[in-house]
Amino acid sequence: MYAIIETGGKQFKVSVGDVIHVEKLGVPTGAYTLDKVLAVVDGGKTNFGAPYLKATVSAEVLGDGKEKKVIVYKYKSKKTFHKKKGHRQPYTELKITAINA
């Protein structure tokens, strides 16, 4: 059994026990419910929403963090132009505990 959820403008395929990184939610550690469920697949039975189902996905917030650094380097040849900038995207780590279809 798995579900397709939407959070932070992205879609994730999740099943019970998965640990995923989503856009930073800014919520404390503990239980959290995701209600934007697009589809639920249970064996051969599938349910699709238009656009969402009335199902929920229960998750546990494990904590916040930052991704690996991405370096943005701009350079123009034959000029003395060099610009280096780094960015670390914040995320929230979720562990899926149940799919309530």
Brief write-up:
Helix content is about 0%, strand content about 65%. With about 100 residues, it is mostly beta strands.
Helix content: under 10%
Give, in spatial order, the strands making up the sheet with the most strands.
Answer: 2-1-5-6
The major β-sheet equals: 4 strands, antiparallel
Sequence of secondary-structure elements: EEEEEEEEEE
Uncertain residue ranges: none
Summary keywords:
single chain, 101 residues, mainly beta, four-stranded antiparallel β-sheet, elongated
Reconstruct the topology from this structure:
Blueprint: E1 2-7, E2 10-14, E3 19-23, E4 30-34, E5 37-42, E6 45-48, E7 56-66, E8 70-76, E9 81-87, E10 90-100
Antiparallel strand pairs: 1-2, 1-5, 3-10, 4-7, 5-6, 7-10, 8-9
Your description of this structure?
- With 101 residues, the chain is an all-beta fold.
- Helices cover 0% and strands 66% of the residues.
- It has strands spanning 2-7, 10-14, 19-23, 30-34, 37-42, 45-48, 56-66, 70-76, 81-87, 90-100.
- The strands form 3 sheets. It has a 4-stranded antiparallel sheet, with no helix packed on it. The chain has a 4-stranded antiparallel sheet with strand order 3-10-7-4, with no helix packed on it. A two-stranded antiparallel ribbon has the order 8-9.
- β5 (37-42) and β6 (45-48) form a beta hairpin.
- It is elongated, with a radius of gyration of 19 Å.
